[in-house]
Amino acid sequence: MTRPVCLITGASAGIGAACARLAAARGYDLVLNYRTDHDGAHRVASDVERAGAHALLCPADVADPDAIEDMFAQIDDEFGQLDALINNAGIVDHAASVTELTHARLRRMFDVNVIGAILVAGAAVRRMQAQGDGGAIVNISSAAARLGSANEFVDYAAAKAAIDTFTKGLSDEVAAEGIRVMSLRPGLIETGIHAKGGSPDRAMRLSGNVPMRRAGTAEEIAHAALWLLSDEASYITGSTLDVSGGR
Ligand code: NAD
Q1: Taking the alpha carbons of 117, 203, 12, 21 in that order, is the dihedral positive or negative?
Q2: Ligand 1, atom nearest to 203 Cα
Q3: Quick check: is 235 catalytic?
């Protein structure tokens, strides 16, 4: 029996890398997308291949529609199938008030976190529809979509809220074809994204605000994402799952 194929965007680090390692252990072959972190992506590819998975590395900026098309052409050539997607690539910028947000920052925030994610999901759905045997998509949103992130990442929060609404719309569109679409809202998770947001100690500093009094791990998000993809979640679609230590 052929192994199912899962595309993970942003798979070279953090939550995406943890999802890739767990997906390999659960029997998936993998398409590992990332932007520029070749070393990280090769480390993840070695790990998943040691676990018995075949891995295709696809560096591509999800904000670039041509790069997305090229990535899917490579998936078609290499595997000729796509069964699951973890739509995970995402960025933050430094903490800022709304009055400081520039057009360039907003453009990049929405190009990567919203438009890129929607284009990747659309291309994945086209493959799943052509195969005709269903599929599953987990869009990685954020607790920020619900909290608003005032005075910090309000643009990021608005982008992630768009992902939650997109998830509901897409799930309604494709549910009858057996394609399930969910969003997962991580809370505060210890990954490198906080350093990129200009605040390396952010996770540690804010963990006191989490009811469980700690940041989560990328592996805890991966377990939730792989469960949503699995047949154990076969009657779940259009839902948003908070994995946030109660935050
Ligand atoms: P990270 O910075 O550790 O990893 C991000 C990954 O995305 C990397 O593999 C990077 O190469 C990739 N990436 C970034 N921009 C890209 C682009 N334009 N095209 C392709 N790949 C790109 O981040 P993380 O913390 O693992 O975050 C993963 C997802 O989880 C993001 O969508 C993020 O918004 C979300 N999230 C994270 C947290 C948290 O606290 N870490 C909380 C809520 C939501």
Answers
A1: negative
A2: 40
A3: no
